Every structure is written in C-alpha cells, then in structure tokens.
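# step 3/5: fold
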Amino acid sequence: MSHHPLRTAAAPAPVQEAAAVEWDLVRDAVRWSPAAYQLLARDPALGPLALDELPGQLLPEDRPVLRRMVTEALVHGRPVAGVLRVAGSPGARAVACTGRADRGTDGQVVALRMVLNAL
C-alpha cells in the first residue's frame, strides 16, 4: 500500500443567492430580499429604493434599458428579462433581471416583481 499526500480540491465558489425585489404600487411599499442589497450595491441601513430611484444605481447607458423593461411590464403587461450593470467601485456588476407585473382583479397593475442574479 503506497501513501500519497492528501490532495484537497479547491473550495467551490460561494453560490450567489437570487435576489427578489417587489414594488407594491397600491400600498406604495417596496420589499427587497437581503441579497438584493448586495447585488444592487445598496447599504441595507438605507432601505430599498423606490422604483423611480432605481436608475441611479445603474450605469447611465443602462438606464434606458431599465425604462423599457418597466414600460413593457407595467404598461403592456409583458414579462421582461434583461441584463443591467450596477454602478459601483471598482467597476460595474452585471445583473440578470427577470420580472413581471401583477394585476389585481380589476386588471390594473398592482405590483412589479423582479428576480435578480449576478452574472
């Protein structure tokens, strides 16, 4: 029986949790999961951003992309998907976003829900 030194595999990279964000348009409430603060480079002590404040977290050239996504979801009722870059230091972080608008029983939009994943 030969003895070989024990070799260990490299530790796997931590699994990035998907982040959930919701803007409740009826109650004027915003909910972010803990992972959303990390992905969107926001201090949790400051609370979540209102939907109209979110573009300020993005690179300027990605703000129109977000605007189109929100319009597609809220005005046209279509599910949305895209990649946005969050401004931060030392550089931007790419985040995949998927979302949809929720409608009330009267057909009016009541909320926008999105799931975010780091790329």
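# step 4/5: annotate
The domain at 19-118 is CATH 3.30.450.20 (Beta-Lactamase).
# step 5/5: archive (pending)
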